[in-house]
Amino acid sequence: MTEAFTIPRVIDFLTQETPSTILQSGADWSGVTAVLMKQGQLTFKSPITGFHLLELCVAGKQRTDTSFDSLIGPKQAYYRPNALFYAPQGQVITAETDEGEIEVFQLYFEDRVFQDVAREICTGDSSTLDLYGFNGRFDPRINSIARSIQSEMDETARGSAMMIDTAIQQLAILLMRQSHDARSHAKTQRITTLSPQDFTRALDMIEAHLDQNIGLNAVASELDISVYNFCRSFKATAGVAPHQYLLERRISAVQGKLSNTTDTLADIAYATGF
Known about the structure:
Blueprint: H1 10-17, E1 20-29, E2 32-39, E3 43-45, E4 52-60, E5 62-67, E6 75-79, E7 84-87, E8 94-97, E9 102-109, H2 111-121, E10 134-137, H3 140-151, H4 160-188, H5 196-208, H6 216-223, H7 227-238, H8 242-260, H9 265-271
Helix pairs in contact: 2-4, 3-4, 5-6, 6-7
């Protein structure tokens, strides 16, 4: 039987087995190890994971085929800024990526984090907790909390650890809720997701028109489907509605420009569609 992949081995495993550059790691927080890294092209198979992995794409673009034993099964995803990946503990994760490089922020959760939260918000035995993984999804709430944790990796001021512990609990709650909502939805209605090719075409079109008042009809027409089907399929694929994704990308664009340009706020707002 494969040895459990535990938190203390995360950094060594990544360094030895993947073509990645560890930019930042450590962070002495309760039940979580945080890693910021650059990831190149890879073919990867993990041992059985003894942790929950949440990964946020911070920068770059890369296509990946990822599979593990969960509701999603094998799935191709296009990583770009703000895309999220989550795999519950106890999984063997395989991944194969194309050329390109992405910067990712990873959180490795000990299972006790989820069990502690489950005992408070779930009825029954928390040991039966069955979580749902996802790949290449977008969720503004999870994104915002993950980025707030990332920003604290260098922070040593008093109170930081307590704030991060609260954020970690919030992430566990959101991931558990997504699992519940996904399973409940699967029992009542099956919605077709966009193909990987159509999904990336939609994202590229939205990205190219961040500074314009692009409508749903324009994107749906590009994919040759109705607006109604596009909205439903996009949300089933990305995890958020098209207008939520557009807003999140515009906010990210504003944040990038505020950090890297001397343009006025009015110019930045105009250039990003606000």
